[in-house]
Amino acid sequence: GNSVTQMEGPVTLSEEAFLTINCTYTATGYPSLFWYVQYPGEGLQLLLKATKADDKGSNKGFEATYRKETTSFHLEKGSVQVSDSAVYFCALRIYNFNKFYFGSGTKLNVKP
Amino acid sequence: EAGVTQFPSHSVIEKGQTVTLRCDPISGHDNLYWYRRVMGKEIKFLLHFVKESKQDESGMPNNRFLAERTGGTYSTLKVQPAELEDSGVYFCASSRTREDGGYTFGSGTRLTVV
Lengths: 112, 114
Fold this sequence. Notes:
The complex is a heterodimer. Chain A is mostly beta strands. Chain A contains no helices and twelve strands. Chain A has strands spanning 3-6, 11-14, 19-21, 23-26, 31-38, 44-50, 56-59, 62-65, 75-77, 86-94, 100-102, 106-111. In chain A, strands 2, 5, 6, 10, 11 and 12 form a six-stranded mixed sheet that branches. Chain A has a four-stranded antiparallel sheet with strand order 3-9-8-7, with no helix packed on it. In chain A, strands 1-4 form a two-stranded antiparallel ribbon. The relative contact order of chain A is 0.34. Helix content of chain B is 0%, strand content 49%. Chain B is built from no helices and eleven strands. In chain B, strands 2, 4, 5, 6, 9, 10 and 11 form a seven-stranded mixed sheet that branches. Chain B has a four-stranded antiparallel sheet with strand order 1-3-8-7, with no helix packed on it. In chain B, strand 4 and strand 5 form a beta hairpin. The chains are: A mainly beta, B mainly beta.
């Protein structure tokens, strides 16, 4: 079936630290991969995406590379800020199907 | 353009009561989706409307849940009667087409059943 597994949180970092949030997936077809972010009190926002193997999605200093050989899509940022504190969800979507499969979310706390 | 609006933002009800959640999609978005996140677990798909028709309701947990989208505009999700395990955050999303990443999510309704 289709599923996404991401590291459990919360993850607590100091400002300017390096961030990695691991995400692996299983898929019955060829998936597109996404990272969504939910800031406190807000809805889910698309952070970045990649639609084929070896593609790198990037936005706001965050990056993730679609690794088909390891079925992974790890989220990274070189220097986190307090404003990055949020819950991050990894997700996949199979081409031509309308529903997303999400991971359980990873809460990130960044301390000044 | 206005975003996807959900209300109420929070609802606390007793077990056995009825609750109705509402979602107003972005104007012109034919596709409307409901998801929920229970107990801090993964966000799971509930169903998908195209205009007023249910395209996919494979994620609806049981017949206590009823979703409608009369006229193809706003949608309601009714839980009757509510059980403790229905507690969670219910998200609505809309999209104009089936394209990837075209979803816009609402901020969710946090439902607590006591």
